[in-house]
Design a protein that fits this description.
Length: 402
Amino acid sequence: FLRSAVRAPVRDETTQLLTQIKAGAYYLALVVMPVHLNVEHQFWAQAGLQSAALWAAALLLVSLGAVLVRLARWPLAARPVWLCVSAAIVLLPTTIMPLNVLVNEHRLYVSLAVLCVGLAMALAAVGAAAPRRPWLPVGLVALLAVLSFQRNPFWRDDFSLWEDAARKAPLMPRVQLYLGNAHKDRAQRTADRQQAVEQWRAAARAYQRTTELQPGGELALRAVNNLGAVMFSLGHIDAAESAYRRAVELSPGYVDAMVNLGSVFHERGRRAADRQVRAAQIRQALDWYERALKLQPYHARAIANLALGYRDLGELERARDTYDRAARLTPDDFVMLNNMGNLYVDLASQPGQTDVPALLDKAARCYRRALAVNPAYLLPQQGLAEVERRQRQLGSLPGPPR
């Protein structure tokens, strides 16, 4: 990470310095008035000196430094002043190193801990020189407790967090990207088809907004790829292929887009009525999966999709071995678990198969595990019902109660 960050920094040194001067004043405002908190603040890089906000921030920081130097001459204030300086030193790494996110609340956590110690010392010093006023620290703690209580609900889940961020920072592309991801995750875990479609469409709008706010770069690349996934889930295969190809054009080594492009050919193959066309499309899908695995050998979804392709081509034992590899990497992938269950059913249905009860038992375990991970995913219910029916016929499962 450090080597790549030094070789290809996010921004040049001058822009980084000017931006972090503004950030220093912004952090002070958050410390003094911790309101309007957000997982990603609407904050812009500063490339030049023509900015009133930059000069105001610089004046504030210089003035604060001068005050601290003067206070340091007072013996009772020496330690609190040193702790304030230490809190600023803690921020030096993120001040010097250009990072994707310009300002972030969690960068203040250690500095705030140091400042709290300094504040306690300052209050003790004031108390030694003046009458005690216990209401001051008590009131401050009560106020901060109320602010924390008001902020906590937004951290309930990804959806509430990024929906709040989108309200407060509507022009930040990262916020739109993660809001789209939250809609996508909710769609995948929603049993109601109409509600799922609404979530998919909301995700598509967020991804499109991401590319509008940042037409190029890493965030745009991920947004284009995820937009393809949304189109694929809505059944718009051609639109999905267009998005995935665009992602591969933007970054030829983007493995996720390669896997997704393989899924497009895979789906077309599964829909094809002609057996030769079906096989040709699935072979093309396998080629994309293998190209992705050459770049990233432990890409779990590429391995799982490869296994599904082998199964669709009738290469069941090869599919079984490949699924075992995928299951070791992502044992809680509910889609993969459902497909593994289907494979075990296929193996149990082979002519001359002597291990039918054990294979059906493995299929049932896969279906049950998929349902435990995502109860809204309905396909395992159908597979499990069929497996249990066959198990009752074989006498390996008690019949339904009467």
